[in-house]
Amino acid sequence: MNATAATALPFGRAEYDGRLRRVRERMAAQGLDCLIATDPANMNYLTGYDGWSFYTPQCVVVPLDGEVMLFTRAMDANGARLTTFLADERIFGFPDDYVQQRDRHPMEWIADELAARGALAGTVGLEMDSYYFTPRAADALRARAPGVTFADAGELVNWVRAIKSPAELALMRTAASIAERVMAAGIEAVRPGVRQCDAVAAIYEAQVRGTAEAGGDYPAIVPMLPTGQGTSTPHLTWSDAPFVAGEATILELAGCYRRYHCPIARTVFLGEPSRRLADTARVTVEGLATALDAVRPGVTCEEVEAAWRGHIAPHGLEKASRIGYSVGLGYPPDWGEHTMSLRPGDTTPLEPDMAFHMIVGMWMDDWGFEASETFVVTGSGAECLCAFPRELAVKG
Asked: b/e for 364-393, b at 16 or more Cβ within 10 A?
């Protein structure tokens, strides 16, 4: 590892060694001799690799015994040398004539290289539900290694990521300080006559500028900005139409630092909100506080959700979707970790240093309200990372 890479890494080598040890313990428990990680968040978690190269096949290979290897496009190999702890000889770049070709696939080249090093043998775990691992990639690997047993590793690395180290939590707290500025900029920018795209420009500026102490990174999800009737659904972005007096706008945003996220959602209304919206906002915010009060080690994910549901039900409200999920390190298109969810049926017990985004969105026929908090499970409860008013923001 060169000096530039050493200074670029967000964590010391001992942090990465601990992560690899825990991953290998899970691999052994699942009967895996090798793991091929294709989720860029998992690649980053295991090695530090950070580059916008996930639009072509790439992976980190973790043998149960032996050195970790990273495979990426040849032009991105130097990026791996600059951002990981791996020695140069453990970084491999496939030739460019494998990129986006119909008659060959990078995973064929990767399989040949792994076989030559004896790493493609026994039972090999694949991240079969990774956004970045296509059916064609899986087929290419299998075709090149007919004697190998491939197994779905599930979210093996993601589950290791669920417990945050003190160093990771420090990055998430920095992301929270950015998130507070981002939300303030977003609410300030939502005014009658202002184009939605101009408000998003102010949001992006705040996300990238960060704070005086820490510049911001790009979040894994673009700003969500449903407005007017669009607030009846959560995942709309923006247009060049102006904001209109007498309408609500939901802002689901995030601060991001060194790829660690702190999401936050709030709702703003231009004018005087209806009694229906005002009452729903009040009950929703109360329910959020009630659910947060239920958080403590040993309580299950579904018990936290039940506390929320128990508060809103007497008011005639219900929410069919989950109210939260594990969060932390992430790349597009998602900052969630794809493990725990705060919903009925998830009996995972909470443990100290888990982090969640609890988002209580009420999406009605043609209107809605959202509020959220990113929190860390402590020894006695929930630590909310942001300090920002949860109530409906009313602007005259």
From this structure: eeebbbbbbbbbbbeeebbbbbbebebebb
* pTM: predicted TM-score of the whole model, two decimal places: 0.96
Cβ atoms < 10 Å from Cβ of 116: 9
Q: What's the gap between Cα 19 and its chain centre?
A: 18
Q: What is the pLDDT of residues 230-241, one digit of tens each?
A: 999 999 999 999
Architecture of domain 3-161: 3-Layer(aba) Sandwich (3.40)
Q: DSSP string of 158-214?
A: HHHHTBPPHHHHHHHHHHHHHHHHHHHHHHHH--BT-BHHHHHHHHHHHHHH--SS-
- The pLDDT value given to residue 7: 54
Of the candidates 375, 300, 340, 16, which has an alpha carbon nearest to the alpha carbon of residue 167? 16
Which are the contacts of 30, defined by CB distance < 8 A and separation ≥ 6?
Answer: 125, 151, 153, 154, 156
CB hemisphere CA count around 187 (13 angstroms): 20
> For residues 254 and 182, is the Cβ–Cβ distance under 8 A?
yes
Give, in words, the CATH class of 166-395.
alpha beta
Model pLDDT for residues 25-66, shown as the tens digit of each residue: 999 999 999 999 999 999 999 999 999 999 999 999 999 999
* Alpha carbon distance 63, 146 (integer Å): 19
Segments of the chain assigned to CATH 3.90.230.10: 166-395
Which amino acid does the sequence have at 175? A
- CATH 3.40.350.10 residue ranges for the chain: 3-161
* Phi, psi of 205, deg, nearest 5: -60, -45
> What is the C-alpha separation between 365 and 344, in angstroms, rounded?
24
Structure token digits, residue 328: 């932390």
Nearest CA to 253 out of 222, 216, 280 is that of: 222
DSSP category for residue 223:
P
Sequence-ordered list of residues with C-beta below 8 angstroms from that of 139, at least 6 positions apart, any chain: none
Report pLDDT digits (tens) over 343-384: 999 999 999 999 999 999 999 999 999 999 999 999 999 999
Please state the rounded mean pLDDT for residues 140-144. Answer: 96
Predicted pLDDT of residue 24: 98
- What contacts 164, CB < 8 A, 6 or more positions away? 172, 328, 353, 354, 355, 376
